[in-house]
């Protein structure tokens, strides 16, 4: 039989349920690991796409055709920002992104891993074809066809 117990602050707790939740958490898919894998695959594909463009690509922010992605530049505390990307480049083998905040147009400093999952691929969508034909980038992790 389960028992309710009274805490010091007057709240009642269902003690058996609490014990089950603490000692036997529900098993589920590790979505955090899947998100990390997705973000790693996006990073690799974007880096490969930028390499096809000679290691750098820039958009004119006066034009409306440029990628806008969501990032969490602080990393620790959630503070998402929509960023208008104006340059992607590779420096010493590391992918770099440059962008301004969508509304106030102030420069936002962030790392690619601070972009929301699924958002680095938005940048690839805005890259033009190389040599007149659209290259198909394939992710080793997900095996896109």
What key attributes describe this structure?
globular, disordered C terminus, 7 strands, alpha+beta, two-stranded antiparallel ribbon, 26% helix, five-stranded antiparallel beta sheet, 145 residues
What does this structure look like?
The chain is α+β, with helices and mostly antiparallel strands and 145 residues long. The chain is built from 3 helices and 7 strands, in the order ββααβββββα. The longest helix is centred in the first third of the chain and has 22 residues, at 31-52. The chain is globular. The model is unreliable at 140-145 (pLDDT under 50).
SSE topology string: EEHHEEEEEH
Share in β-strands: 15-25%
Tally the beta strands.
7
* Helix/strand/pairing category: alpha+beta
Model regions low in confidence, pLDDT < 50 over at least 5 residues: 140-145
Main β-sheet: number of strands, strand sense, barrel status? 5 strands, antiparallel
Task: Report how far apart the termini are.
Answer: 56 Å
The DSSP helix count reads 3
Overall average pLDDT: 82
Radius of gyration: 22 Å
Helical percent range? 25-40%
What would you call the shape? globular
């Amino acid at each position: 039989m389960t028992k309710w117990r009274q805490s010091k602050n007057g709240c009642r707790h269902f003690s058996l349920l609490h014990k089950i939740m603490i000692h036997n958490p529900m098993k589920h898919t590790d979505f955090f690991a899947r998100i990390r894998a997705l973000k790693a695959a996006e990073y690799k594909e974007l880096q490969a796409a930028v390499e096809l463009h000679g290691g750098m690509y820039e958009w004119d922010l006066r034009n409306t055709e440029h990628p806008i992605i969501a990032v969490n530049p602080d990393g620790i505390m959630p503070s998402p920002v929509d960023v208008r990307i104006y340059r992607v480049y590779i420096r010493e083998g590391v992918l770099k992104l440059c962008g301004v905040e969508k509304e106030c147009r102030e420069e936002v400093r962030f790392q690619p891993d601070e972009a929301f999952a699924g958002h680095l691929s938005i940048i690839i969508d805005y890259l033009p074809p190389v040599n007149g034909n659209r290259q198909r980038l394939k992710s080793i992790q997900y095996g896109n066809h």
